[in-house]
Design a protein that fits this description.
By secondary structure, the chain is an alpha+beta fold. The chain has one domain (about 20-145). The protein is about 30% helix and about 30% strand. Residues about 10-20 have low confidence and may be disordered.
């Protein structure tokens, strides 16, 4: 009987110790995946539109929640600017990311890592991402502050 109890307890404890942890779901907008890394940095990844293999992801990282929200604020600001000539493009950098509003497609902003063609976002996408970033349950201490500059 004692052997049975010891075996039962060891099975229970080993299953508890080996249980998987469930992490929060990332923010998804189409093929754009936004997630918090353990360091508190915010990653943006998407399928490279000019992919050469099935798995060809492109991405960039923002230093924290504040910078990621600022990126979306800047995207919204650029989308709301006056229309330009079709040959004139608006480019703006925030951290590791580049925002581009092309003159031939002024209803969308392309967000990229500066090296690859960007992922297109419409204004309502940017507003949804900003809202999701503001309400996301962050794990890293750097992102737990309620203050957003």
């Amino acid at each position: 009987m004692r052997k049975f109890i010891l075996i039962s307890l060891s099975i229970v404890f080993s299953s508890i110790l080996q249980s998987q942890t469930i992490s929060k779901a990332p923010i998804m907008v189409g093929d754009l995946k936004i997630d918090e890394l353990k360091s508190g940095r915010i990653s943006f990844f998407y399928q490279n539109p000019e992919y050469k293999s099935i798995i060809d992801l492109v991405g960039f990282i923002m230093k924290d929640k504040k910078q990621a929200i600022f990126l979306m604020d800047e995207a919204i600001r650029i989308l709301q600017m006056e229309e330009t000539d079709k040959s004139q493009h608006i480019r703006h950098s925030v951290g590791n990311a580049e925002l581009v509003r092309y003159g031939f497609r002024q209803d969308a902003i392309y967000i990229s890592d500066r090296e690859h063609r960007g992922y297109p976002l419409l204004e309502y996408n940017c507003l949804n991402i900003k809202e999701a970033l503001e309400s996301y349950e962050y794990s890293a201490e750097v992102n737990k502050s309620e203050e957003v500059e």
